[in-house]
Design goal:
By secondary structure, the protein is mainly beta. The chain has 1 helix and 8 strands. Strands 2-1-7-8 form a 4-stranded mixed β-sheet, with no helix packed on it. A 4-stranded antiparallel β-sheet has the order 4-3-5-6. The chain starts with a strand and ends with a strand. It comes from Yoonia vestfoldensis SKA53.
Length: 114
C-alpha cells in the first residue's frame, strides 16, 4: 500500500474552514526546491484530492507553502503573515501524512495529523 499527503486549513479567527487558500508543494533536494503541485482549498478547507498522491509518494523532504496572506489580505495594508512554509520529512512510503494548518491573521500552528 502506498502513502499519500493531505492537508486541512482552518481559519481560527473566523472559526471556519479556510476556503480558497492556494497551497504549493515542493520536494527539497539539497538547496533546490522542485515544484510538484499547486492546489486550492475547497469549502471544507481541504484540497479535492491528495496533494501528493500514492503514485508520486516517496521518502524525502518536502515543503508546503500556504498563501495565507492572500486569504486574509482584504485591504492594501501590509499583512503580518503572508506565505507560510512548512517543511517536513516523509520517511514511511506506506503511510498517510496529513499536515493541517490552523491559521489566523497573526499566528499559525501545525502538527502531523491522521
Amino acid at each position: 500500500m502506498a502513502g499519500f499527503l493531505t492537508t486541512h486549513v482552518l481559519d481560527t479567527a473566523g472559526g471556519v474552514p479556510a476556503a480558497g487558500i492556494k497551497v504549493d508543494l515542493y520536494r527539497l533536494d539539497g538547496d533546490a526546491r522542485v515544484h510538484l503541485a499547486t492546489m486550492v482549498t475547497n469549502g471544507d478547507g481541504r484540497t479535492d484530492s491528495p496533494i501528493l498522491p500514492a503514485a508520486d509518494f516517496a521518502v524525502g523532504r518536502y515543503e508546503l507553502v500556504f498563501q495565507a496572506g492572500d486569504y486574509f489580505g482584504r485591504s492594501d495594508d501590509p499583512r503580518f503573515l503572508d506565505d507560510i512554509p512548512i517543511r517536513f520529512g516523509i520517511n514511511d512510503p506506506a503511510s498517510h501524512y496529513h499536515v493541517p494548518l490552523l491559521v489566523s491573521p497573526f499566528g499559525f500552528s501545525t502538527y502531523r495529523g491522521s
